[in-house]
Amino acid sequence: MAIASMQKVMIVAHRSQVSELLQTLQDAGIVQILDAERAMVTIEWPELEVEPHRHRDLEDSIDRLDKAIAFLKPYAPKDQTSLFAPLVQVDNDTYTNVISTDDSNTLLGEAESVRGQMEKLSAEADSNAALLEKLLPWETLSTPIEELDSLFTSTTFVGLIAEQHFAEAQQKLTELGAAMEKVATWRRNRACLGVCLDESASDVQKALRSVEFEVVSFEGLNGLVSDNITRIRSRQEAIETEQAELADKAIQLAKDRLKLQILFDHHENLHSRIHAESDAPATEHAIFLEGWVKKKDYQTLEKKVTQFDACDIAPIEPGQDEEVPVEIDNGPMSQPFELITRLYGMPAASDVDPTVFLAPFFALFFGICLTDAAYGLVMIAFLWWLLRKLRGDKKFVMMLILCSIVTVIAGALTGGWFGDMIQKFTFFNGGTPEVADTVFEKVRYRLMWFDPLEKPMYFFNISLGLGYLQIITGVFIGFVHKLRRGEKTAAIFDHLSWFIWLNCLLVFGLGKAGMFGENFAWLGTAAGVIAIIPALMILLFSEREGGWGARIGMGFYNVFSTVFYIGDILSYIRLMALGMVTAGFGMAVNEIARSMMEHGVIGWIGAGIAFVVGHLFNIANSALSSFVHSMRLQFVEFFTKFMAGGGKQFDPLKQSYRYIDVKKKET
């Protein structure tokens, strides 16, 4: 329920055992290892060797595997993975067998061979298709290609011309003493041959260019065009046959694609270990692994390191101004909401973890934005089913389940059950509990606190009240956190002063509005008098650097910035707005379904479809809006009151998998 305490460590390992040690550390996944550039030991002992280098053989192997896996994917049988279980489960024996034998490398070579041949054939087929496209207009040409340029005193022009320009071209060439004949018509173009004496070739060429004559070259070809076309078509058929045979081979190879996926993930993890080793400072015989571990995991790490007789570990002090990596630890109820914190970015090491504080507010705001009990029940049912199907991290689903539970409560308190379904489809025309004539109506009235459509100002005031509560909570969290860190001056003048000032303004405003009655009207006046003290604190001490003139000037600005707090509070009106929109859309769906029911059996069927589809769309759309806007309120209005952010994520060396999930044997 706070930012995890970190311990910096120094691990010294003999080169003969470092690879095995890194394997153990990667399996544990509890220590972040710094490279030489960030390690303090490099600064203190510059004579240490640092030989970072790329591991090209391993990187090439990873790249080859990645391409082979992608190539075989279209030919593979139905994946064992799914949306809910994206990784293939592999037992430890299978994993060990694949990485320790050469079968996978043989499979890789065969896959690369097939891919290479298919790419070569595909390139040839594309080239042949382009050549065929060029030759088809000249299929009826009875002159061999090599004879077109064999005239001694004349020049031949071969090309395509648009039909609308053909007559003009003939006329121009005739005037120049040349001739043009049509060979064939092809897609609104005419394949033509033009002939002229050599001395007029330049003028003819200009004339042809003016009518957009497209020159065609048959370079590299001999014989009749029709014979070349026949040969190309025959080769295309042969290519298709070869491609089919290679595709069959690819289908057979794809049956063992899992081996390549296992090898890929193994090489990726191996590369991480080798990279950590090569980037660490070292002597001729020892390597220094400097890093970070959670304090609660230090003893576990110590046991794993000291099991190697040529390795040792010791806690060390971080360097001056060294940035400490950040990880957050929370209890089971608030842990699912860590997603919101991580989306914002990790808090700074000197911050407070906001997760435990945002969790109740986020769930409450989500429920208020939906404000429909039936929608909450539908979401709970779906998410519970999804939770049982899902493998891997389930925190996001658990968070939505908790938010859906709050949605049920919020919807029941405001009378929302699929919009106004109970009133509309039980033919309820009353309006008070006394005339409620169905069980559903009686239950709805007993659970309902108020109807937002009848009393929208209740909803408005609740939204503003919750906004004020969250903002003032953020200010108070900042005060307590700074006080615990010993920053008393900042705690008092940056947080406590604002806490008192805002509360005094609230009480003063409520008193002026007559909210306390005649007997307690003095509370507003007293709050106005007390407000002078925090106002002076903000005016004189909110800015504590520079001369008094600058400090007081910034103090005036800070006092004026109270209006920004008012703007923040007004932002929470979106809770009411989204809740009303959800209810209004649900009512519109019900009205459409009700009107369709008046048209017989077909109308009843259509009404059922409209009801289900309409409300499912409303659930999806409103849930997305509820999530986004509730998250925005945390980021913009809440976090800024007590959290600086910008922390660097704790990134331990650990096993990571793209394709597989290795089930380790229990020990």
The overall pLDDT, averaged over residues, is 89
The major β-sheet equals: 4 strands, antiparallel
Shape: extended
Strand order of the largest sheet: 3-9-2-10
The structural class is alpha+beta
For the secondary structure, the number of strands is: 12
Helical segment count? 24
Rounded Rg? 38 Å
Cα end-to-end separation = 30 Å
Which residue ranges are poorly predicted, with pLDDT under 50 across at least 5 consecutive positions? 427-436
Oligomeric organization of the protein chains:
single chain
Give the strand content. Answer: 5-15%
Helix content: 55-70%
Summarize the structure.
Helix content is 59%, strand content 10%. With 667 residues, the protein is of the alpha+beta class. Residues 427-436 have low confidence and may be disordered.
Explain what this protein looks like in three dimensions.
There is one protein chain. This protein has 667 residues and is of the alpha+beta class. Among the domains are: 1-51 and 279-325, Alpha-Beta Plaits; 149-217, 2-Layer Sandwich (Alpha-Beta Plaits); 335-457 and 571-641, no CATH class; 487-570. The chain has helices spanning 15-28, 40-44, 56-72, 92-100, 103-135, 163-175, 201-210, 225-254, 257-278, 298-306, 338-344, 355-370, 373-389, 395-414, 421-425, 439-447, 456-484, 488-512, 522-530, 532-541, 548-560, 562-570, 573-596, 600-638, and strands spanning 2-3, 6-14, 31-33, 88-91, 154-162, 179-186, 189-197, 214-215, 286-294, 311-316, 328-329, 660-663. The strands form four sheets. The protein has a four-stranded antiparallel beta sheet, covered by helices on one side. Strands 6-7-5-8 form a four-stranded antiparallel beta sheet, with helices on one face. Strand 6 and strand 7 (189-197) form a beta hairpin. Mean pLDDT is 89; it is low at 427-436.
